[in-house]
Amino acid sequence: MPRRPSSIAIVGAGPRGAGILERLAASLPELFGDGELDVHLVDPFPPGAGRIWRHAQSPLLAMNSMAADVTMYTDDSVVCAGPIVPGPSLWEWVQRVRAGELPTETADAYGPALWAELESVDAATFPSRRLQSRYLGWVLRDVVASLPSRVRVHVHTGRATRLTETGDDQWLTVEGEDVPIRADSVVLASGHLDAVPTDDERALLARAVDAGLRYLPPEQTTDTDLSVVQPGETVLVRGLGLAFVDLVVLLFEGRGGRFVADDDAVGGLRYIASGQEPVLVAGSPRGAPYHSKTHYALRAGRPPLPRYFGPDQIGVHTATGPVDLRATLWPLIAKEIAWGWYHELVAGHPDRVTLDLDAFTARFDALDWATPQMDTFLAELAPDPLDRLDLDALDRPLDGVTAPDLDSLQPLVVARIAEDLRQHVDPRHTPHLGAFVAMLSIYGELTRLQGESALTPESQARDVSWWQGFFNGVASGPPGFRVRQILALADAGLVRFLGPGMWVEQVGPEEGDAGPGSAVFRAGSAATPDTVTSTILVDARLPDPSASRSTDPLLASLLRSGDVVEHVLRAADGTVLRNTGLIEVRAADGAVVDATGAAHPRRFAVGPHTQVKVAGAFTRPGMNAQSLRYNDAVARAILRSLPVEEAAAA
């Protein structure tokens, strides 16, 4: 009897979906034999790049990683079950394009502006998202080209809307296609999902509309209609993360302003206005933008990791049951971050410390974190206070900063931001990068612990979001040139900082101070008694994850049918502590969990819409990256779920 090919549908053809395909290709010979396979990539956005990295966005928007720090391929550092298949990093790919080694990547195909950028990029450049789009598209084509002829890849440019089952077959409906796709196994790799506003956000929006105010709820900044922001008006902005950085780019350079070099300016830049700019008054719980990306390499090489926060050290605490992250594990986490910092300081800057690496390590090993003995030792080791790690300052950079009024607050905040920038671009301060590398290792271990339910539900509900915020603030910041631009805008009076502990309320019309019968948003902070009013408020952040509020039709239908559930944290007595809004999956391999608690044998999900958090869809080379290891585990589970040989329907 004739046999029909097995089939996999990957919903989401951006870097996560492409990464899964790369790992499928790597393990195919081992796990699938010589069978035939159809792989269907489904995405309304360009394959490889997906929505976030699509070419059709402002050319002003840049990556938050240097060209040498971006790869989609495994290397010898990656510890995984599947084969290691090396490939070029973004920077190596750029060099190959310049050398004419990739026939499809030509100046005519790129256009003058993008080709000029490609020719100017070096290893330490933060490329545009458009250039990254080209790299990701090439990676996908490279992976497809590596597949044997018995594997066929089909690209479907449309949105998946429905998934059903008949017997062992799954049927995926795609907008614009008359016939559903048949698949043995399905992977949901759609990335960040849009969601309708929360109840509180909807209520705020309704009140704002009724009062004649404008409120822009959380969403991808690149998709926000910013035409409602008028030139010259004051805009309240809640959030100082990466969405805020995109907002700044689009409202200032995006409206014709430009930056010029000025050695006398705080950040070395001066802003030339176009006259189309608003004035942004911004705040957040921490009150400052994320720490800048580091602009240097490690002098001492990658520190040996994990050392204090690996499976063996953690297992001592978790052997008898789930533990509290802050109370039990934080001392180990903090010491691991400090190990990354001080390893780089001692081995990379020996002239600034009093011990060599062996002597330092022996004494550091013997001391617990956050003890008077450790504090005394580190003060003796590093006489300059700037060479010592201050985790509280990294987490809350504006603690203790207060001023009698908003005008007096500005130079205080600007000075903190400028000094932080200096330390992240000055090679004297490479210990910051050592700490960052340690945090990446910690991130992977914490993901594993969550998957193994090794944290108490109370700690997961309370502490994991704190850790994610701390990690984002320290490790996921913008390039230094973006911070310089923000400083230039602050100097021009076009970006003003409210300080930490920002709050917002709607007042009026009777209480408003913008004229009789008017309503306003009023904002303040813990740093100053001054307040600021405006008729427009922007929440500059991504929507909170929520499968139940998702605008994705496929996910909504799966949730309604009970084939997908949100991951809910419950206390021992069953009390709901927190609904994460994330798709529940089996942590080991991404298998989708349904309403009965069963893991589907042939449905998988990977990415930020699941409760398994991995740090980015692409990663730095040479880092044993968690994202590549997890992609490998999921891909191998998918291959094992396939029927190797399947009789064709009669």
From TrEMBL:
This is FAD-dependent urate hydroxylase HpyO/Asp monooxygenase CreE-like FAD/NAD(P)-binding domain-containing protein. Residues 9-192 form the FAD-dependent urate hydroxylase HpyO/Asp monooxygenase CreE-like FAD/NAD(P)-binding domain. It comes from the Bacteria. It holds the Pfam family NAD_binding_9. PANTHER family: BLR0577 PROTEIN. The lineage of its organism: Bacteria, Bacillati, Actinomycetota, Actinomycetes, Pseudonocardiales.
